[in-house]
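Hello Y.,

Per our agreement to keep a running log of every chain we model this quarter, I'm adding this entry. I've kept the format consistent with earlier entries: sequence first, then predicted structure.
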Amino acid sequence: MKRTLLIFLMIICCSFVVGAQSVKTAVWKTFAPENEEFWVDIPIALNASAFQNDNSNDDFNRRYLNSLDGTYFYIFSDNPQRPAQFKYVNEIIRVYKQTGKAEKIGKFETVKYAFVDDENFQHIILTVKSENRFYVFQTLSPSKENAAADRFFRSLKLFEKGSRENFFEMQNEKGITVTIPNTIGESVPENERTSYNYDIGAPDDKHAKVPKPVSVPKNQKSSKTKDLPTAELNISKRPEAKFTDFAIFYEMRGTITLSITFLADGTIGKITPVSKLPFGLTQQAIAAARKIEFSPAKLEGIAYTVIKTVEYSFIKK
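Predicted structure for the entry above:
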């Protein structure tokens, strides 16, 4: 009896340990860079840099960005007369035909947008305009319910030039530890996955029927089949996936995994993303996969269909 009770208690303890590992802890800190008019709570240090293009001045256009467990945080700070970075953000808003909610906070004019893109990434964008700066605060996450994004916007405070002393009164309240459910980036069970068959650049009827793997029954094999070739799938040409302008601007990095059907007739069949990236990169990976050239797998001289995963990595551009 005692032994049974001991085993039962050990199982309960293990359950608590597993449960604890499924939650990731983040220590939030206040981010209030000099020469800016905001402070905001962040769960990870934001990398600061000047935004450079032909029409911008490095002294006026700044950016702060980073990501944590699949959630991306962006802050763009522009010269209000020449908001060079906002034109990219505004194009995202235009592409998805969004109408924001306008609100005036003190002397700041703000507009907020919240929408899901074609790849099910959740965007929250807040534009802020004052006499001195034009800001964009933006989060991007793979799920609509996101504790990190919610806290980021909830904590945002705007202040006019010369009122930074108010910030120091808040510092005693910071250093708060919160827990964020670690659902981002975890593998999804096969029966819960959503299938995305973009089939870019290929007629729909081409993939209507996918041939099943062909094999020769044992009772039909002859001694001659032993001399026929047996070979694995051989990819002879694999074009690279290209960055999009949006991905370059947002400094998007990462790896996309595709499940690809290599048909027995030497053509590409269904393509299903196992992991995705936003800003058109998933479509770019699929488009590149459509151009893969390969020799089909063969079993005793007979070609057959194979499904394999292929990765496309997007590294620093």
